[in-house]
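Feature request, filed as a ticket because there's no other form

It would be nice if the structure record came with a short human-readable summary line next to the tokens. Right now we just get the raw output. Example of a typical job, pasted below so the devs can see what we mean:
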Amino acid sequence: MTGPVAGSGYPGQAHDTRWRSLVFPEDHVNPRAQSRYHLVVIGAGPAGLICAIGAAGLGARVALIERQAMGGDCLNVGCVPSKALLEYTNRHSIDGTFEAAFAWMREVRAGVAAHDSVQRYTDLGVDVFLGEARFVDGSTVAVDDQELSARRIVIATGARAALPRIPGLDEADPLTNETVFDLRQAPNAIAIVGAGPIGCELGQALARLGVAVHLFDVADRVLPNEEADAADAVSKSLLRSGVTLHLGADVSQVERTGDGIRIAYDETELRVDRALVAAGRQANTERLNLSAAGVDLAENGLIEVDDRLRTTNSRIYAAGDVCSRLQFTHHADAHARIVIQNALFAPTARTSRLVIPHCTYTNPELAHVGRFAAELERNGTRSDRYAVRFEELDRGRAAGDEDSYAALLVDPKRGDILGATVVAENAGDLIAPICLAMSNGLRLGDIGKAVYPYPTRSEYLRRLSDNYNRTRLTPTVKQLMQTWLRLIN
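Raw output as currently delivered:
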């Protein structure tokens, strides 16, 4: 994370000054290390922060080490600033300006930073060390000129943007999620490489602020890991926002020129002011000296962990993006809670029991939890699909919902929910009851037992449950019901 340069004068500068003072205060003095900690946590992103504050709240002696900024990517260069921009452009799709949007983003980030600040964690009993962590051995970590000894250690160093191997890309000084929020003025045109969640979200936000956005991906559709009809709905929304899509496009070269950047692809070229890379992540492990601690990496570069988040050294745990392909803040949160249980008490908590949703915060949002249809088909698992379009609901019709729907994949015999996709305004909120149901073994028929407020989009749950329950009316059941009704007539 680079962060703004002081004194240059730009919208939201005062908020940036406060933000930096909270997450990496220049006057912070590291405490003197205690003789031995119950837990040393390396990395103060979502996983590390929750590990530290949770363990300290239980009375453990905890040290937290951070080399860049408290809050990690989520607060500083990820979820918080990107969602602030998206929220601004949703509310000001016509009258919004780049300067006002980025000033709002900086104000929101500074406000949230107080929750993740060095001072807050120090006040709650955590020894906060700002500096580079490096393993000395399997139970000792060095930071600056001190060595911290611990009963258990947690690696929560997160991940960073990975640059694809495209000739000329490094020399073109591309933006990533770590630098795009430092922009002081809007580029006239930008090329975004990668049409995953980050590329789609930032592409839509920048397009709504008047930037000519060109979104590239080698796949033939945006969000290639999502259900095809859901990705298609997002694609239509991006086009309505003014994003130009280059799908199935192989970017072969990026070249910095005197007046911008040249993007070569599929025997043609495009000239833009800036390029932004949103094409994958890589774990932050290089500087940790993992070999000294007996911690191995998996083939994909992530730290190798078991179902209880133990590394190849059972005294050392890993949590969050550094050890998981599911790189979401809420997944890191869940990891942290497992680590607290397993590192301090009996190691009974398992990652395999987690139900992890995800959401792309375009407008409309796309949320998913559980299995995908193609995945079930590959595994030979039968499923029935139940779907409802939100324009069929009174609230959706009143709101003018377009390209919005919810679909559930259900076990034909038992009614267990195997997977769900929601494309709608606030889809991330709307899918939460499905996550609750899947986590607690509730079936689709059970969901209809609740009473939902009218008129709301949450009525999709009752509608899908009703549709499912009607399929339970076999010819035999219908005949018995008709016989009963004749008897009571």
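Something like this underneath would help us a lot:
The chain has three domains: 13-161+282-353, 170-279, 364-475.
The CA atoms of residues 145 and 442 lie 53 Å apart.
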